[in-house]
Specification:
Jelly Rolls, nine-stranded antiparallel sheet, 18% helix, globular, alpha+beta
Length: 178
Amino acid sequence: MAIETTRRQILISTLVLSATACRRAEPDLAGYTEEEPPHLSSTIRANDPQIVPQLLSGWYPAEQNPWRWTARTFAVALWPPPGSAARGAILRVRLAVPEVLLAQLKSTTLSASIRGVQLAPETYRQPGMAFYNRDVPASAVSGDSVRVDFAVEKPFRPNVADSRELGVIVHNLSLETK
């Protein structure tokens, strides 16, 4: 009977140890939320509140317009579209050049760079809708995201009451596969 009790205790201990060994450790979820990380887009509308994480620097808050003012220098993160790492891309910016800006500055020049690759500048001398379209080499659009840095040659100061240094008005930006 003592042997039977000992066998039972060994069997129970073995089962408990086996069950403990098979149990998976709980994953460490510290720092995670239930939300998914934001997905970058290769096309953004400047007034879309969902793209705000892609506006890296130099952007003023959206007003009640389908556009946004930029500062003298500004940057955006875009998702490289499929095939662009092999074929390259086209950077497209739809912008507006206000008459009041040209009355003060006579012209404004926009330039951009991606990963150290300088894209040709464009000078605007006429008010209204304008475009900045440039070919981007494949080497500059590889990876999970593409940072595009822009610079406006001369900033615009609207008036004494508005101390902002304004660049241009952007409606939308995109990277498209060539």
